[in-house]
Amino acid sequence: MISHICIGVNDFERAYKFYATVMAELGHILKFCDDEKPWAAWMAPDAPRPLFLIGKPLDGDTASAGNGQMVALLAKTRQTVDRIYEYAIANGARDEGQPGLRPHYHADYYGTYFRDADGNKLCICCHEPQV
């Protein structure tokens, strides 16, 4: 259903460092990084799509987060959700919901929400039962 998701950033170097750690924790690999453009993309190791991209806006304007927009990234375990949240908050992300069960979504939904340094809202979630 989804080909790619692109997140606009203003400080590419800072954003790249932040997202490279998050993507590695989720088990995704770097597909490309072009400092000249600047933009970068990650993918699952076993599939070329979907891609998760970060980059400066192509129109040259300042990147800004949209109200009501969010990207949810899938984690394999609840411990991964916890680790990414801790990393994100320690590296300048703003808390939008600490890790925990959200049974109003479904019994095994475990997620966290935060905004990156550019204000982009992200969710890291796991749909699996506790192991």
Task: Give the strand tally.
Answer: 8
How far apart, in Å, are the first and last alpha carbons? 29 Å
Q: Percent range for helical residues?
A: 10-25%
Shape: globular
Mean pLDDT: 96
Low-confidence stretches: none
Describe the sheet with the most strands: 4 strands, mixed
Structural classification: alpha/beta
**Rg, alpha carbons:** 15 Å
Tally of alpha and pi helices: 2
**Percent range for β-strand residues:** 25-35%
Spatially, the strands of the biggest sheet line up as 1-4-3-2
Order of helices and strands: EHEEEEHEEE
- So what's the oligomer here? single chain
Give a quick set of tags describing it.
globular; alpha/beta; four-stranded mixed sheet; 131 residues; single chain
Topology:
Layout: E1 4-8, H1 12-26, E2 29-34, E3 39-43, E4 51-55, E5 71-74, H2 78-90, E6 94-101, E7 110-115, E8 121-126
Parallel strand pairs: 1-4, 5-8
Antiparallel strand pairs: 2-3, 3-4, 6-7, 7-8
Helix pairs in contact: 1-2
Structure write-up:
The chain is built from two helices and eight strands, in the order E-H-E-E-E-E-H-E-E-E. With 131 residues, the protein is α/β, with parallel strands linked by helices. It has a four-stranded mixed sheet with strand order 1-4-3-2, covered by helices on one side. A four-stranded mixed sheet has the order 5-8-7-6. A hairpin with a 7-residue loop joins strand 3 (39-43) and strand 4 (51-55). It is globular. The relative contact order is 0.22.
